[in-house]
Amino acid sequence: MAPPESLQPISLSKQNPSRMALPHLLQSPPSSSAFTHKPSLSPLSSLNRGSTKFVSLSSITSRRLKFNTSSLRCSASSFSEKHHTGSPKSDDLVELPLFPLQLVLFPGAILPLQIFEFRYRMMMHTLLQTDLRFGVIYADAATGAAEVGCVGEVVKHEKLADDRFFLICKGQERFRVVNIVRTKPYLVAQVTWLEDKPSSDANSAEDLEALAAEVESYMKDVIRLSNRLNGKPEKPEATDLRRNMFPTPFSFFVGSTFEGAPREQQALLELEDTAARLKREKETLRNTLNYLTAASAVKDVFPTSSS
């Protein structure tokens, strides 16, 4: 049943403050306006064993888009200046159209989308005439829509003859939904911006660098063992995963590679402390490395015969 027309704010669910009470919008999968291509960071599947989370990083070095962008129009020059006149303030309250998806977008990540559902085609027509920014929020039918999401900025687009759109979007700042102000023809919310809070520790910069280096080291080991288990040669790109990224954007990059564990990704996205995010990622990667090490040892003892 379609939701009633309303322009009044809808409060967030009191039962679960990190989720919005939007079950009527999620009767069909939120990805019904489907994206047909994976993000360029080659998000990785999760190997869940009991309550311990594992991730597979064997594809992480495929960092380039497997998507033909030569025919897509670059829209970056059309961005509204109001979004680029300084860093957004956390107490700013702005309206933002929302796109619920069964994935988590991180700042800096690339998201290719195909838009064919009517209400989101309408949204795109509006965005192409304004500032080309919308909010991506993780949602599923079981738990509803998350409160924290990430702005997707359209950097390239192509409109097809049947009014479908192919988009290349890039994750920008994070936001927290305060109220839903409209549900038709698509969601529009009032949001505030979300930023990591600076640490009061005088040595925090050095500590963050050391922590980021540890996370990168674990990622390299996971990639190496994962490639070995899958019979793939080690790729030279895996020697420099950070590519001069500072700890905060690097922590978002690491989180973006954990696709297949969207609730874990959502938890990482919602953290407002870079050190806490890196520590959580380090623990996940350490668990993964332990699992892969055991699997590699078993494979060495009991090698399978090639068919």
UniProtKB/TrEMBL annotation:
<dbReference type="InterPro" id="IPR003111">
    <property type="entry name" value="Lon_prtase_N"/>
</dbReference>
<feature type="coiled-coil region">
    <location>
        <begin position="261"/>
        <end position="295"/>
    </location>
</feature>
<feature type="domain" description="Lon N-terminal">
    <location>
        <begin position="93"/>
        <end position="289"/>
    </location>
</feature>
<dbReference type="InterPro" id="IPR015947">
    <property type="entry name" value="PUA-like_sf"/>
</dbReference>
<feature type="compositionally biased region" description="Low complexity">
    <location>
        <begin position="22"/>
        <end position="33"/>
    </location>
</feature>
<protein>
    <recommendedName>
        <fullName>Lon N-terminal domain-containing protein</fullName>
    </recommendedName>
</protein>
<dbReference type="Pfam" id="PF02190">
    <property type="entry name" value="LON_substr_bdg"/>
</dbReference>
<feature type="region of interest" description="Disordered">
    <location>
        <begin position="1"/>
        <end position="39"/>
    </location>
</feature>
<dbReference type="InterPro" id="IPR046336">
    <property type="entry name" value="Lon_prtase_N_sf"/>
</dbReference>
<keyword id="KW-0175">Coiled coil</keyword>
<feature type="compositionally biased region" description="Polar residues">
    <location>
        <begin position="8"/>
        <end position="18"/>
    </location>
</feature>
